[in-house]
UniProtKB/TrEMBL annotation:
Belongs to the flagella basal body rod proteins family. Residues 214-259 form the Flagellar basal-body/hook protein C-terminal domain. The gene is flgG. It is found in: Bacterial flagellum basal body. Residues 96-159 form the Flagellar hook protein FlgE/F/G-like D1 domain. It comes from Stappia taiwanensis. GO terms for biological process: bacterial-type flagellum-dependent swarming motility. InterPro entries: Flag_bb_rod_N (IPR001444), Flagellar_FlgE/F/G (IPR020013), Flg_bb/hook_C_dom (IPR010930), FlgE/F/G-like (IPR037925), FlgG_G_neg (IPR012834), LlgE_F_G-like_D1 (IPR053967). GO terms for cellular component: bacterial-type flagellum basal body, distal rod. This is Flagellar basal-body rod protein FlgG. The basal body constitutes a major portion of the flagellar organelle and consists of four rings (L,P,S, and M) mounted on a central rod. The rod consists of about 26 subunits of FlgG in the distal portion, and FlgB, FlgC and FlgF are thought to build up the proximal portion of the rod with about 6 subunits each. Its main location: other.
Length: 260
């Protein structure tokens, strides 16, 4: 009975849906996390009576036909790149992007990754790095005796030196993408450029098409607890309904088997 296999695809789809939701909930407090959504498509159809064919010698056209579907499949786990809430932290090396743009990060293999997580630190050499020690492009070094580190909305990094003079250390740049949902997540709050995302377009914060920066703030995850709970309940009910279909199909098969 096809209903068994069709309902099984529905259960598998909702199982994956719950996995996506659970990952969103697990990352509710992850800085710069972007939630995902499971998208589904129907599977191939069996045409028992094809629409548009003739049904008589006079050329009568079949208006609808008879098609039997074979279930559902997961088409994508789309990443929702909307802005998360920006929360104050009071830490001078915490920076949030407000609007379009990603910080550029140098990877150990020489590649470039991108992140919305602006919780930066200084390494032993004064270099501006991520919490994993990866260098933030374009490589800003903060002197040991520097005071009152200021990162402006347009990305200019300034400090007061030992003589209380303002010293400009460099300019932070950010990157944006034509299709930022096409970026590949690799963990550690990092993304990689792909063919789907398109090439990175680099510019200064505040330029046309780019967001600006907020020092002493961090962008929170864009996960909404109420929405995730609602989605979880809907997925649970869909899973339950598919399991009932399997049970009903099994009972129908048992009835057929018991016929004398």
């Amino acid at each position: 009975m096809k209903a068994l296999h069709i309902a099984a695809t529905g259960m598998r789809a909702q199982e994956l849906n719950v996995e996506v939701i659970s990952n969103n909930v697990a990352n509710m407090r992850t800085t710069g996390y972007k939630r995902q959504r499971a998208d589904f498509q129907d599977l191939l159809y069996q045409n028992l009576r094809r629409m548009g064919t003739t049904s008589s010698a006079s050329g009568t056209i079949v208006p609808t036909g008879v098609q039997i579907g074979s279930g559902v499949k997961t088409a994508a786990t789309a990443r929702i790149m909307s802005q998360g809430n920006v929360a104050p932290t009071g830490k001078e090396l915490d920076v949030a992007v407000r609007g379009e743009g990603f910080f550029q990060i140098d990877l150990p293999d020489g590649g470039t990754a991108y992140t919305r997580d602006g919780s930066f630190e200084r390494d032993a050499n004064g270099q501006l790095v991520t919490i994993d020690g990866y260098t933030v492009q374009p490589g800003i070094v903060i002197p040991e005796d520097a005071r009152d580190i200021t990162i402006s909305a347009v990305g200019e990094v300034q400090v007061l030196d030992a003589n209380n003079a303002i010293q400009v250390l460099g300019q932070l740049q950010i990157a944006r993408f034509v299709n930022k949902s096409g970026l590949e997540a690799i963990g550690d709050n990092l993304f990689l450029e792909t063919e789907s995302s398109g090439a990175a377009v680099v510019g200064n914060p505040g330029d046309a098409g780019f967001g600006d920066l907020m020092q002493k703030h961090l962008e929170m995850a864009n996960v909404e607890a109420v929405g995730e709970i609602s989605d979880l309940i809907a997925a649970q009910r869909a899973y339950e309904m598919n399991s009932r279909i399997i049970k009903a199909a099994d009972e129908m098969s048992a009835t057929t088997s018991n016929l004398r």
